Amino acid sequence: MSAPPRNRLNPNDPRVRALLWQALVLGLVALGTWYLASNTMANVARLGVASGYGFLGREAGFQIGETLVAYGPQDPYARAFLVGVLNTLKVAGIGIVLATILGTVVGIARLSRNFLVNRLAAGYVEALRNVPLLLQLFLWYGVLTEGLPGPRQALEPLPGLFLSNRGLKLPGPADDPTWSWVAAAFGLGVLLALAATAWNKGRQARTGKRLPLLPITLGLLLGLPGLVMLAFGGAALDMPVLKGFNFQGGVTLTPELAALLFGLVTYTAAFIAEIVRSGIQAVGHGQTEAALALGLSRGRVLRLVVLPQALRVIIPPTTSQFLNLTKNSSLAVAIGYPDFVSVANTTINQTGQAVEGVAAIMAVFLAVSLSLSALMNWYNRRIALVDR
Amino acid sequence: MSDGAFGLSPGEPPATRPPPAIAAPGVVGWLRANLFRTWYDTLLTLAVLYVLWLVVPDVVRWALGDAVWSGEAAACRAAGGACWAFVAEKWRFILFGTFPADQHWRPTLAMLLTMGVLLASADRRFWGPRLLVLWAVGLGAAWLLMAGGLFGLSPVPTELWGGLPLTLGLSVVGLAVAFPLGVLLALGRTSALPVLRVLSTAYIELIRGVPLVSVLFMASVMIPLFLPTGVSIDKLLRAQIGLILFAAAYLAEVVRGGLQAIPKGQVEAASALGLGYWQRQRLIILPQALSLVIPPLVNTFIGFFKDTSLVIIIGLLDLLSTAKAALTDPAWRGFYKEAYLFVGVIYFLFCYALSRYSRYLETSLSKGRRR
Predict the structure, then answer these.
(1) How far away is chain A from the Cα of B297, in angstroms, using its nearest Cα?
(2) Minimal Cα distance from B304: which residue of A?
(3) Closest partner CB to B48 (pick from A117, A133, A345)
(4) Cα–Cα distance list, A160 to A137, A244, A247 (Å)
(5) Are B300 and B197 in contact (CB under 8 A)?
(6) What is the gyration radius of the CA atoms in chain B, in angstroms?
(7) Which of A25, A91, A126, B81 could form a cystine bridge with A329, CB 3.0-4.6 A?
(8) What is the DSSP string of B134-155?
(9) pLDDT in tens, A48-67
(10) If DSSP codes are grouped into helix, strand and coil, which group holds residue B71?
């Protein structure tokens, strides 16, 4: 019996089939893309819409309510986009920090042996997780605008802090050189605290003795600026004052930003709480018992034994919650906070360049998501179990 | 050296141990164990009780005591409590949107059919190919009831659909289409063929990296541009396409988790039996992989059900939008708390039921794996 003739294009050869399949899929995708792209070009040409990012240099012509950098309607679209990106980053940054703190507290409360505390925490988690975030944002926005009195009847829960339907007014630092000295002292405090930590590490390795780092760090971070302020005899504050129909001066948290932040933080915290709870529960009880048997105090058991192991379980899902919070900040468009999506949406409406606008939104969020997950992956690798 | 370091020295009397603690029975024992275990526990309990004492009476007075259950807005404004009369007045609009009022039995029946299909799918005894038939028949009948145009039902265009039927329809149809797509994407991402792997991975990561709002924007403004001149599809279908594209990427990641948990030996044994790729996936791999990830799949379903509320941003009248629209009635301005609480309770019931179900599945499915 002779060997079967070798056919280079035998369809029964798995390698040939693999190539054929891939060529087929690639061809279909290319065909689909070409079809959609050619339709789009034809439609865009028919509607007489410009294409490309030339509009970025033109005057935007719309006002933005809240900006971190100077902006006016005569500025170009590129500047408006920058304002939007910064606003998105501001909400995401503050939101992530606050949601982490609140989520950790609620997650630990869920594990409390105190019946009232753990039931309350469980109720909080269930109530917030099972209702759409957008609904919660509408509710908080309603409470902050319709539910609060006007500036003239503003609530004043603490002296200098006013709550009205124009937002939250706080005393801010006035235009006073003392504040720059205070800021400089704070920077010095951070540097000294870092140096103390590094020195303590070497000292502990040599002698086994530890410095009381927490009081030292707190003293440096709070004490130094405090001392500077005392030395200058106090620094001036810019107090919000009612003038006419609204407040003047002070720092403002607009109802839009406050509702968005409050909604995002409470919602995401419910998810983080569940992650924290399951992470702590994932650490075997034997670990705690062994650590106690070694004579470590309860605080150190938590800090040196339980938390480092729990963090390995907690970090990856928490990363995706951070990403969710960042993406959810785009719901700002529904309550009128000028985040990037809302700015891009206005731009689409004004220029008609939908393709470019949507592409810009996707590019910005992809960039933010990818950098955030790169950062969290780096942190995750740092705390991961070292395999030998 | 004596053994004093480890045991008691012989002369010393045996240490008197405290008697074993007996848990006090009854209410007092429960209170002591759960609320007043230590001094800081007691402090915490008292603090929580104080806050509850400050908040709860006011809330109860607002929601029940001073509440107005029927009548006009003026009566509500005078009473100062919750205005449930607003919900009594608007519940039909909130639930059904602008669907013709004399035809409300049709969306009601359609929703009951959909929920019947869902309940049947929740029962493990029904799991199997029969479910596909049930879904096709049930959803087809629900669609017919909503759209009309046959059997003497007056046609109702999709622009008039709204409220809970729309939310349910968007989620159920969205998941029914996105799930097979997600499985295909997951298979693509774990495939040995590099082109498929790269394309699936790029799609999944792109969609997961951007917010749903932008996908919906894309669906609503770009789909008309994608189509040849003169062809148009309605807004509901565009939103549905956007939701499907979005959900498929998330479902694919969950399914991939299951696929990766299946030991390689399973694939190799199946190949050794002479099964081809699709036979392997259909008979050996997917049944195991999918049953592993059912609980996270249900969690993704819950998230998707909540996410359908975002269609308000492209102007569809879903359950949340109808509540918002009901608030624009000048006669009933300002009763936003009542409206959102009403809608929130509906969302909560659906999501909570689903999450309880996912927990039940988790325990009942892991029985075979538990030792």
Answers:
(1) 16
(2) A132
(3) A117
(4) 27, 17, 11
(5) no
(6) 29
(7) A91
(8) HHHHHHHHHHHHHH--STTPPP
(9) 777 777 777 777 777 777 77
(10) coil
